[in-house]
């Protein structure tokens, strides 16, 4: 069985949402105010640290996370459990996948790749290891669904 990574989820060399948009006749481009970026930490990036160093690294990483929350750029983030992936095929078949290769991820909402690099540098310094930066694709249909769901939550009850 071939294991698909996120970077493999492309159709004819284009991200899936861009390919669908082109098929529907939409021009490529973003209407969302800011792009989102995912910062990825390799699963083994911190393996060489001594146990006694981990509390300081944890404190520094959480301080950067708090800074991102306070700045309003934090979307979500977490470490991944050290486990094998479950692969669910289109026909519903479930099989065991590869051992985790991502140690953690953080999604931030910032105006540019340069700003994402600034935040990644803060986490890299705090965690004492490299951070990968990937821009997330924009899907205007999902964006519209989210706006519609948010508007339902803010409407007064009709009762």
Discrete helix count: 4
Give the neighbour order of strands across the main sheet: 4-7-3-8
**Beta-strand residue percentage:** 25-35%
CATH class of the domain at 33-137: Alpha Beta
Helical residue percent? 25-40%
Q: How would you state the average pLDDT, rounded?
A: 82
Question: Strand count, sense and closure of the main sheet?
Answer: 4 strands, antiparallel
The name of the CATH superfamily of the domain at 33-137 reads Dimeric alpha+beta barrel
Number of E-type strands = 8
Inertia-based shape: globular
Q: What would you report as the Rg, rounded to the nearest angstrom?
A: 19 Å
Brief descriptors of the model:
single chain; alpha+beta; Alpha-Beta Plaits; four-stranded antiparallel sheet; globular; disordered N terminus
How would you summarize this macromolecular structure in one to three sentences?
With 159 residues, this protein is α+β, with helices and mostly antiparallel strands. 35% of the residues lie in helices and 25% in strands. The chain has a domain at 33-137: Alpha-Beta Plaits, CATH 3.30.70.
């Amino acid at each position: 069985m071939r294991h698909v990574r996120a970077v493999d989820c492309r159709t004819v060399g284009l991200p899936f949402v861009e390919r669908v948009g082109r098929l529907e006749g939409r021009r490529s481009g973003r209407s969302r105010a800011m792009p989102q970026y995912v910062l990825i930490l390799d699963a083994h990036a911190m393996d060489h640290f001594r146990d006694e160093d981990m509390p300081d690294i944890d404190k520094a990483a959480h301080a950067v996370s708090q800074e991102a929350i306070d700045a309003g750029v934090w979307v979500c983030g977490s470490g991944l459990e050290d486990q094998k992936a479950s692969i669910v095929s289109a026909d519903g078949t479930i099989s065991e996948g590869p051992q985790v290769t991502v140690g953690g991820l953080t999604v931030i909402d910032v105006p540019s790749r340069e700003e994402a690099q600034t935040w990644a540098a803060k986490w890299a310094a705090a965690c004492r290891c490299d951070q990968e930066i990937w821009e997330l694709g924009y899907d205007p249909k999902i964006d519209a669904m989210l706006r519609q769901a948010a508007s339902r939550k803010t409407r007064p009850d009709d009762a």
